[in-house]
């Protein structure tokens, strides 16, 4: 039953029982399990709506959630969990969704499972917890380990690399027999260090700072958007203790630019909780000093973002200093940081933020418009800048402008809301313009 959603819909409308196992060679077993194993989220949704049993089992005791976890599919896993899937179910050999996701190296799935209350202490059939599994894979040469699983004499092999949905590198090792009659493929994600960090947090384990920093640095240029880096930085930031903070500030003074960059990223929101910023008075002077002393553009970009996170107007002159430097390349960090520290009556800063809302880059316009919308001030100049974005070709930008005008009681918000609802399928944009 695993075809495109239109075909599946027709079969279900024709009365096909979604819980009837298929008998075909390729798609034998339960349709929900097959859809989950391939991340066919539209098919998963249709099958669940048609009455598919979310925890039904195939041969070997496999449920749809076990398949989704084993193959690193966080979106499918989330849908199944929302439908009531057992996050601690085991197959016949004792694998749990969490141990399978840990073996895969899929931090996206692990995050979904932990948020849903999966038992991180539960053992698999080999007597290992998910953390044991992740640590066993961390540091292993992934390509070689995968090849060892399928290697046969005389076969030809190829290794492919791409990004998984959660941003970690997905490694595929495929083999074929000399006569071409047989083939085999195995996959894993290079996310075991990130998974281990998430599971250590869940278990309340304080891994040494040096070890966590090594994980982050090793994956900085491997992940699509530094996912492991940010998981580690977030883990350290949640500790909110002086010992960790001091270790991170020492990194900010390191001779190594990557260590300085990580140190800044990790202290940027250190100890933040429930609106409290307990390390603000120590962090802000450190960042202000780095604006003067730092010569590496990437580290300076992190300093800019960190200044914005402090949300303190005292950071504004330093933010403007960075933004005004010759050769500075504008990114979305610029409007985010500027808006976060901009006081209501600062005309120079407001002019710069408005200019960013007119940038050629749609993402920069979007974030700058969101920044304008969120300012505490309500002036004709701000309203006109927001109204100018109602005709923007980017509908998220239109939605942000609409929200800002609506919050100020400006009747022109209706124009933007009508346009977004008529032209956009983006859930976030539509929610912005319909929120009370």
From TrEMBL:
<keyword id="KW-0040">ANK repeat</keyword>
<feature type="repeat" description="ANK">
    <location>
        <begin position="93"/>
        <end position="125"/>
    </location>
</feature>
<dbReference type="Pfam" id="PF00023">
    <property type="entry name" value="Ank"/>
</dbReference>
<feature type="compositionally biased region" description="Basic and acidic residues">
    <location>
        <begin position="427"/>
        <end position="436"/>
    </location>
</feature>
<dbReference type="InterPro" id="IPR011989">
    <property type="entry name" value="ARM-like"/>
</dbReference>
<dbReference type="InterPro" id="IPR036770">
    <property type="entry name" value="Ankyrin_rpt-contain_sf"/>
</dbReference>
<dbReference type="Pfam" id="PF12796">
    <property type="entry name" value="Ank_2"/>
</dbReference>
<protein>
    <submittedName>
        <fullName>Ankryin</fullName>
    </submittedName>
</protein>
<dbReference type="InterPro" id="IPR016024">
    <property type="entry name" value="ARM-type_fold"/>
</dbReference>
<keyword id="KW-0677">Repeat</keyword>
<dbReference type="InterPro" id="IPR002110">
    <property type="entry name" value="Ankyrin_rpt"/>
</dbReference>
<feature type="region of interest" description="Disordered">
    <location>
        <begin position="406"/>
        <end position="436"/>
    </location>
</feature>
<feature type="repeat" description="ANK">
    <location>
        <begin position="27"/>
        <end position="59"/>
    </location>
</feature>
<dbReference type="Pfam" id="PF13646">
    <property type="entry name" value="HEAT_2"/>
</dbReference>
<feature type="repeat" description="ANK">
    <location>
        <begin position="60"/>
        <end position="92"/>
    </location>
</feature>
């Amino acid at each position: 039953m695993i075809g495109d959603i239109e075909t599946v819909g027709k079969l279900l409308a024709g009365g096909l029982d979604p819980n009837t196992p298929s008998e075909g060679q390729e798609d034998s077993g339960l349709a929900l399990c097959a859809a989950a194993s391939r991340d066919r989220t539209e098919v998963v949704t249709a099958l669940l709506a048609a009455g598919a049993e979310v925890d039904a089992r195939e041969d070997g005791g496999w449920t749809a959630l076990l398949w989704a976890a084993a193959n690193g599919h966080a979106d499918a896993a989330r849908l199944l969990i929302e439908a009531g899937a057992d996050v601690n179910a085991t197959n016949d050999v004792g694998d749990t969704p969490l141990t399978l996701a840990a073996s895969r190296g899929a931090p996206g799935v692990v995050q979904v499972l932990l948020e849903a209350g999966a038992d991180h202490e539960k053992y698999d059939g080999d007597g290992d917890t998910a953390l044991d599994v992740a640590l066993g894979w961390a540091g292993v040469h992934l390509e070689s380990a995968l090849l060892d699983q399928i290697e046969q004499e005389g076969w030809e092999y190829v290794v492919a690399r791409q990004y998984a949905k959660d941003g970690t590198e997905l490694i595929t090792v495929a083999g074929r027999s000399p006569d071409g009659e047989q083939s085999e493929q195995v996959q894993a994600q290079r996310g075991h260090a990130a998974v281990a960090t998430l599971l250590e947090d869940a278990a309340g384990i304080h891994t040494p700072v040096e070890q966590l920093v090594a994980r982050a640095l090793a994956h900085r240029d491997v992940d699509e958007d530094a996912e492991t880096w940010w998981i580690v930085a977030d883990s350290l930031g949640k500790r909110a203790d002086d010992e960790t903070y001091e270790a991170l500030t020492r990194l900010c003074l390191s001779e190594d630019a990557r260590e300085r960059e990580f140190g800044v990223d990790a202290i940027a929101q250190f100890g933040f909780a429930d609106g409290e910023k307990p390390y603000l008075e120590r962090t802000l002077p450190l960042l202000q000093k780095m604006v003067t002393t730092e010569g590496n553009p990437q580290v300076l970009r992190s300093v800019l973002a960190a200044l914005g996170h402090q949300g303190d107007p005292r950071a504004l002159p330093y933010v403007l200093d960075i933004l005004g430097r010759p050769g500075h390349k504008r990114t979305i960090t610029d409007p985010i940081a500027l808006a976060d520290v901009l006081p209501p009556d600062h005309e120079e800063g407001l002019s710069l933020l408005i200019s960013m809302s007119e940038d050629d880059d749609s993402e920069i316009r979007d974030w700058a418009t969101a920044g304008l919308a969120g300012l505490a001030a309500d002036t004709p100049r701000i309203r006109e800048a927001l109204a100018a974005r109602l005709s923007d070709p980017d509908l998220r930008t239109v939605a942000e402008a609409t929200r800002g005008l609506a919050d100020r009681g400006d009747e022109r918000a209706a124009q933007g809301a009508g346009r977004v609802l008529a032209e956009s399928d983006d859930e976030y944009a539509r929610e912005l313009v319909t929120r009370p």
